[in-house]
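From: lab user (bench 3)
To: helpdesk
Subject: output format question, protein + flavin mononucleotide

Hello, I'm new to running complex predictions and I'm not sure whether the block I got back is the full result or only part of it. Here's what I submitted:
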Amino acid sequence: MAKSKKILIIDGHPDPKSHCAQIAEEYEKGAQKGKFDIKKIDVRDLKFDPILHYRKASAQNLEKDLKDSQKMIKWADHIVVIFPIWWGHMPSLLKGFIDRAFTNGTVFELKKGKRIPTPLMNGKSIRVIYTQGAPRFYTRFVLRDSVWKSIKTNIFEFCGFSPVARTYIHDMHSRNEEAVGKFLRKIFDLGLNGQ
Ligand SMILES: Cc1cc2nc3c(=O)[nH]c(=O)nc-3n(C[C@H](O)[C@H](O)[C@H](O)COP(=O)(O)O)c2cc1C
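Helpdesk reply: Thanks, we reran it on our side. This is the complete output you should expect:
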């Protein structure tokens, strides 16, 4: 029998009462129904300093919660990371988690004589789910999708994740209960199918 896909859900919203937290729960419910092997990190509940104070991450003592998170990242076949867009990027808490936990030797490796680091996340896929206030046309025609291109290329492709899929939910401020229910059902299905 094929072994079950190992899925790590990372909820990067600082507020447990957010739509993103609901999305993370709904994905988890779907994945449970799909009988996947699941672990979850709620970044807001971790005890760690979200500021990297040095030019090298290794200069800063790694808190236990970050060590455990690194183990989970290595363990997973598929990662789902969820956050809202704040000022054109992820919230600083999640960015701080990435600065501190995505270290040399964990998600990439610096090798002597090589100008480009070696990715260590090859063979793992990732889905990025984000919410935003702006409408879709603004993303496409004004921003030229720069937010996504930056996050996808600079962080996840750099580490070797492939494919780097995305689901983004726009117009968050004008969605009524029915519209929220509709996208939550889509998120459940993503979990159910382990995507
Ligand atoms: C500090 C802050 C900055 C924001 N910046 C942006 C932005 O740059 N682009 C955008 O489309 N929406 C922006 N928003 C709107 C959020 O993306 C939106 O409120 C969120 O996605 C709703 O989902 P939630 O309930 O999970 O927070 C911002 C909201 C906050 C609080």
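A quick orientation on your result: The helical segments are 19-33, 64-75, 92-101, 136-142, 146-159, 177-192. Let us know if anything else is unclear.
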